[in-house]
Amino acid sequence: MAIDISKKVLIITLLIFTVLTASFTFTHNMQLSNFLELERADTFENVERVQNAVATEQSYLDYIVQDWACWDDTYQFIEDKNPEYIRVDLQNQTLSGINVNVMIFVNNSGKVVYVKSVNTSTAEEAPVPRKLLAMIEDGGLLTEGENDSISGFVLLDEDPMFIACHPILTTKYEGPSRGTLIFGRYFDDALLESFKKVTRSSLLMYRADEEMPQDFQNKIKNFSQNSDNIVVDPLNKNQIAGYFGLKDIKGDIALILRADFPRELYLHGERTLNYMYFFLLLTGLMTGVGVKFVLDKLFISRLVEVDDFVTRVRSEKDLSQRLSLEDNDELYRLSREINGMLNEIYLAEQELKAQAREKKVLLDSLNELAVFVDTELKIIWANKAALEYMNMGLEKAIGVCLKVAPGISGPLVEHLNLEEIFTTGEKKSGEYTAQDGRVWFAQAIPVPDEQGKIIGILQTCRDVTERKEAERLLHEKQIAEIANRTKSEFLANMSHELRTPLNSIIGFSDLLYEKVYGELNEKQARAVGNISRSGKHLLNLINDILDLSKVEAGKMELDYKEFELAGKLNAIKSLLSPIADRKNIEIDIEVDKGLTHIRADEARFVQIMYNLMDNAIKFSHENGLVKVRAERKGDLVEITVKDKGIGIKEEDQCKLFKPFSQVDSFSSKTFQGTGLGLSLVKQIVNLHGGEVWFNSKIGEGSTFAFTVPIDGNNN
């Protein structure tokens, strides 16, 4: 058996290692592919930098030729060939200074008026490229109108050349055109070297009209369709190259450039992944070996010991042997069960003790206290639970009178009156409350002999304190819920009776205060004003209580309508401005541009915002700021009210949203309020199908937020 289990463990370990290896390999290849993509993106970026350097050179030449061609002196020179213009403006050093190798003035007839070619490094004159003059004769470099210009490359025998052609106009860019001004700059080795330094890259350039290496020939097809393409290919393990083409003045590919870069990113990523891959494989292998070793040592070797023990007991038929395993685990419990089984087999051979053992095992398994007493109420036998409750062993408990037995005499003797059972022979049961307050369910069953004579009583006792307490709490909860519903329904139905007399008090006090019925002295006016203010405060309190009662009674209905959000928020701000102005508090409202209208109960929405903004002002410091922000969150609008006020202590935060709860105690109350505002806010938001939450730190202020559906889908 041990060999079979060991082999199975080995196979499972190998399978797990194989799966891990496959997972590591897949992850390695996937990450390596990611590094390849990163390398390509990096190379694209570097090649674009080279392209930008070349384009900058061409743009510079285009700018210079335009500057010279649109000049009144140049415009006049084409007409009169003024030698002074040549002497002053067309010096070799001038062309060398602006990095122009060739300058050609051509009139409208296509005739070359003036030409100069210099070496920009030495400022010495150089031969004019014949192919360039031939292209002028063919008209390939001549502009056709005032808005025409030519820019690109031409492949000369000497070197490729940047070409820029512009019509000759006045300084005000007015015509008619008197010809074409042509500037040329050789794309020679020196310029290529400057590009290498600027872009910090290795560059190779080949002309499209000459033989080029195989890798360039393979890429020219890509540039035939789109010269703006960048082709990136690894050259070898250590270098990657980016290819791009440059057009001639006809729009055909003239040059192909290759920028070479070291593959540091990819090689570093590959090395890192390889290290991780082999480390994980090694870790998996070591873990597998370790697991196999631990399983062999902790379990399989012990299973071998169990197998050897069982084989030895069966062969020797010695049931007195016992298996001893260390560690309190499943194998230990298995050994314990084996030993128990041997005990049971051994006891089965003892016929006189078989029945007693069976009853003991059965009754010991009960959670109830079970005691068997004789006619003198002396204990004959007790189960494990009863013995533990009496804190004594069975041998010590046998013969003890139940009336003096510690702990269980009360529920088993006094309440059930066991002596009467021996007379009537009837089973008795009932609940008994002990002096410590615990409730017991006790039962006494008479046990007769074969002739029907009662020889003893089997008594059981079960602790039902928790069940009775649960029943009591459930009953009290049901009574409280009924009372709460009755209260809410009563208050909701009494809204008219409560509001009508109070409105009358407020109305008549306001009439008196306004001296409708005659003049009042100062004390009378002050008293009437106090009556009006107190009545209005009481009316607000009653309104909040009635609203809360309506919600709890399920009688509050929402009147959905569409309204403008920003306008409504600003209206509430205007309502609260007098209160805010007393503390010099600024109210800042910000609404997302795309959030114009929402559909909700307009009056209840105003009630929500008034409560939140009023609280923010109330708990803000002097010269504070209250920020209100509304933004779209999917199909919901989220509105936050934030202040930098006193904040809420962590131990007081649990009181929020509970009716009649405030963070100030009544004895030290600093801020007015009933404690109903936030509770109503939560109830009304929930009726809309939204949620309310908050965040607060003491001394740093509070943020209250809620969401409601924008289009009132909860309706």
UniProtKB/TrEMBL annotation:
Enzyme Commission number(s) of this protein: 2.7.13.3
Q: Where is the PAC domain?
A: 426-476
Q: Residue limits of the Histidine kinase domain?
A: 493-712
SUPFAM superfamilies given in the database record: ATPase domain of HSP90 chaperone/DNA topoisomerase II/histidine kinase, Homodimeric domain of signal transducing histidine kinase, PYP-like sensor domain (PAS domain)
**Which Pfam families does the record cross-reference, listed alphabetically?**
CHASE4 (PF05228), HATPase_c (PF02518), HisKA (PF00512), PAS_4 (PF08448)
- For the keyword Chaperone, the answer is no
Please state the protein's primary subcellular location.
Answer: membrane
Signal peptide position in this chain? none
Cited InterPro entries = CHASE4, HAMP_dom, HATPase_C_sf, HATPase_dom, His_kinase_dom, HisK_dim/P_dom, HisK_dim/P_sf, PAS
GO CC terms of this entry:
plasma membrane
Which keywords accompany this UniProt record? ATP-binding, Cell membrane, Kinase, Membrane, Nucleotide-binding, Phosphoprotein, Transferase, Two-component regulatory system
Q: Which reaction does it catalyse?
A: ATP + protein L-histidine = ADP + protein N-phospho-L-histidine
Which compartments is it annotated to reside in?
Cell membrane
* GO molecular function terms listed in the Swiss-Prot or TrEMBL record: ATP binding; histidine phosphotransfer kinase activity; phosphorelay sensor kinase activity
Superkingdom of origin organism:
Archaea
User: Per the database record, which ranges form the HAMP domain?
Assistant: 297-350
Q: State the name under which the record lists this protein.
A: histidine kinase
- What species is given as this protein's source? Methanosarcina mazei (strain ATCC BAA-159 / DSM 3647 / Goe1 / Go1 / JCM 11833 / OCM 88)
User: What is the phylogenetic placement of the source species in the record?
Assistant: Archaea, Methanobacteriati, Methanobacteriota, Stenosarchaea group, Methanomicrobia
